[in-house]
Amino acid sequence: MSLAGILGLLSMGHTFTIFVLAFLLAIPKLSEANTGARETIESILTQIDELQFPPLRLAYKDNLQAIPSTSRITKQEQALRLILNQLSTLETKELSQKLKLDIDLIRYEVDLNLERLALERQWNQSKPTQLNDDGLARIPMGKAWYSYFLKRWVDADATPESIMSFGQKEVERVYSKLQAAQTRVINELKLGTSGLGGGQFFLNSKQSVHSAFEEEKKHIQSLASACFPYLDKVPEIKIRAGTNARLAQTPGYYGNNRFSYNYFDKPFNIRQIAWLYMHEAVPGHHYQLSLESQLPKSQAQKQFIYSSYREGWAAYIEELGTECGFYDQAHDELGKWEWDMIRSVRIVLDVGLNYYAWDDAKALSYWQQYIKGQDDIAMREIARMKRWPAQVITYKYGADALLKLKQRAKVSTKQALKTHHAKLLTLGPMPFSLLEKHF
Questions:
Q1: Are 77 and 25 in a shared domain?
Q2: How far is CA 206 from CA 36, 209, 257, in A?
Q3: Is the terminal CB of the chain with fewer CB neighbours within 10 Å at N or C?
Q4: pTM to 2 decimals?
């Protein structure tokens, strides 16, 4: 503010003069507090980095085999408690929002790592001589480990009980949506006895699959800017056929600005085209990760990675397919609900298998209540969840958290949705419990 502007304000009266002077005198104090806090935060982040915590691995067996010696655990615990003491010296009410976020992120990480170290200390006292791949329910401390992995993969607020309840509710909701979508497609296309398994839903050559995804790309490009900001910052995405047969069980995947679809020896269902492109490309992983690398982030956000946010975003945007005009054919939305049914059932199975000690037969029986004719996929997913506990929950949990933020913001138009997404993407990745607090 210029000197003339200040003098003008002072001329408005004695009370206002006192207010303005108090505000101006407070500015150096606020700046000094932020500078001091920033230096403390940078020092803490360096200390955490030097502790060299092992990365979170997909397989529980790999995580448990990476547990360090008890003496090293003690040193890490002592270092983290010192960090908590340093955090307690920061006066958060005088700090910027970005610094407050950094403090919350550091505290979140420290608390989870202290919980992990306590479990590791206990594990070292009674660990088995040999680990198997039969799931956490079949090893010592299995319930405690599952509760921790759930927090680490999903959110610190997640518990086995709350996630099981969430999964059961989602199964019923999605099953109802799926049945309605099936009825719409059958009625619109006047399907005969072949029903939803008819040949009109399948592509039988790599070229036809490739062309379908290229058309979907054009379709999304023509509509995305109405609901999603910063598209000019997102590089072109290339579409290609996947070449790794080991990944054939998934319809597609993303990496290095490339969306890869898997077409090997089986026909490709056209109901997977729309939601899959959205999830892996735009406005899913390619879009979100491109912006994550470009938009400003706090110091702590640069150091900590939250895959649950990334998977949650990609699943969340599938929910917007009708609202944003991406699902322009009835079978597009049907495909979304078919895959969502699998994701929803997996939540219940993951908790059941790893926390409540369900056997494979009970898990398969639950699957068969909602998903018909895909028992081979069921057994593959059951084996996956026993090896990689909690990871499959990130998609649905994250999508639900982001949908709740959208509802809280009372978004009612596409322009409002675009503004909402700009705020969300600018705030950046973080645990969902902190996102709810800072949004």
A1: yes
A2: 59, 5, 20
A3: N
A4: 0.91
